[in-house]
Amino acid sequence: MNTNFLSENFLLQTETAKLLFHDYAKKMPIIDYHNHLPPEEIAQDKSFDNITSIWLNGDHYKWRAMRTMGVDEHYITGAATDKEKFLQWAKVVPYTMRNPLYHWTHMELAHPFGIKSLLNESTAEKIYEQTSEMLRSKEFSVKNILKKFNVQMVGTTDDPIDSLSSHKKIVSDNFDIKVLPSFRPDKGMTIEDSQSFNNWVDQLAIVCDKEIIDFNSYLEAIKIRHDYFAENGCRISDHGLETIYADDYTEDEVQLIFSKARRSEFITEEELKKFKSCMLYNYALLDHSKSWVQQFHIGALRNNNERMHRELGPDKGFDSIGDFTIGRSMAKFFNRLDNANQLTKTIIYNLNPRDNEMFATMVGNYNDGKIKGKMQFGSAWWFLDQKDGMEKQLNALSSLSLLSCFVGMLTDSRSFLSYSRHEYFRRILCNLIGNEVANGELPNDIPFLGKMVQDISFNNAETYFGLKK
Fold first, then answer.
1. Which residues contact 369 (CB under 8 A, 6 or more apart)?
2. Do 413 and 55 contact (CB within 8 A), yes or no?
3. In this model, does residue 45 exceed pLDDT 70?
4. Is the C-alpha dihedral spanning 283, 284, 290, 294 positive or negative?
5. What CATH class does 47-140 carry?
6. Do the domains 47-140 and 150-464 sit in the same CATH topology, yes or no?
7. What's the alpha-carbon Rg for the chain, to the nearest Å?
8. Would you report the helix, strand and coil content of the chain in percent, each value rounded to 5?
């Protein structure tokens, strides 16, 4: 193996970068405040049978690469055995060079498995057997993997109708890593799909033990679940949106639109936007009332391949960066909340890199001088959480806001092996700073720079999310 690849100084080009990473960033715990890890697997302290079940199942990044290489769907989401799927992935890996998958794959083999060999067709069999044997041991159960990565908090993403039974079990088991739910109420505003929306509202009525007869009783039911989440440790909401909705509406209009949706009648585009605008505003009011952090993941163009969506369903790797108009409606939404002194701590994430500078300047409009970094330009997300995307996000944030206030990285992942992305981020951060010290653009003040790196890696998030003991 090339000793320069994934060496201890991987991505660290200067002595200052090496010092900042090894002496300051590396040792910091992880607060993974947004991910899609299944809480039931943490509650069960699940052990996986093999590396495919923890690494390939649900990973649409890898699926997209396999399809690009011409691998049949049988070996991706189909009925092939786990070993067959892994062997197919191993054949693809060498061809992912310069894609972040190549880095992530080998970083995740190195930690936690300690495997330094390159994954390819010739090493696949041995690596499959070696990792699978390790995963079946108690040392590599879900809880122990989280401990190996020095995770302090896991923020799952949960539907408001979820019972949170897994979170309750984790608490009752006295697990020493916080696993907190996040309130993701997207289904509560998707009236464009009347069947799914009405099914969800019916389930909401059941879990609230409340008859939902109109829009007002619907909002009351939403609040009941918001309160329930708060009682079970929730302090973060999350929204996955094409854009921020901020159309004008009246209460009478929304009442009528809700009634039409419940009768599965045709909803116009104008009505759809009015309803989404109303729901988003009411969600924000609830979050402010409890001092939660609200997150907005903006700009995904989802389920583009209609044929594959029909065959496989959503979240199977057929989404793209969207080119939606965002800035004006976002400002209107934040202004309405800010004018009423009801704008809570907020993180906004863009998926289109063209919006980096707009997002970085938008957060500066609504800081109020009371909370450090109240408004956050979130870390590079989804298609952008790779070296180039992270550097561009960090540069835009640094140039137009304050990098020192940043709450840092998250995984946004469905895999328990994705925590290497925090290391990846920290190396990139330290390298950016180290290069500017070497160029004379920043002073060689290691104690201050080291503290700043530690703040971005951990301390800022600990304070921002109210986790500081």
1. none
2. no
3. yes
4. positive
5. mainly alpha
6. no
7. 23
8. 55, 10, 40
Phi-psi region of 185 (alpha: psi -120 to 50; beta: other; left: phi over 0): alpha
CA neighbor of 115 nearest in space, from 133, 94, 137, 97: 133
* Homologous superfamily in CATH for domain 150-464: Metal-dependent hydrolases (3.20.20.140)
The answer to whether 432 touches 12, Cβ cutoff 8 Å, is no
Report the amino acid identity of residue 17.
Answer: A
Q: Where are the domains of the chain?
A: 47-140, 150-464
Please state, in angstroms and rounded to a whole number, the distance separating the CA atoms of residues 238 and 410: 13
Cβ neighbors of 380 (< 8 A, separation 6 or more) are: 386, 389, 390, 392, 393
CB 17 within 8 A of CB 430: yes
Question: Which phi and psi angles does 321 have, rounded to 5°?
Answer: -70, 130
Residue ranges in 318-459 assigned as alpha helix (H): 327-339, 356-364, 387-400, 420-438, 446-454
> Which pLDDT tens digit goes with each residue over 399-416?
999 999 999 999 999 999
Q: Please state, in angstroms and rounded to a whole number, the distance separating the CA atoms of residues 293 and 413.
A: 19
- Give the span between the Cα atoms of 11 and 106, in whole angstroms: 14
For residues 206-212, average pLDDT: 97
pLDDT at 4: 83
Spatial distance between the Cα atoms of 21 and 29, rounded to a whole number of angstroms? 13
CB atoms within 10 A of CB 342: 14
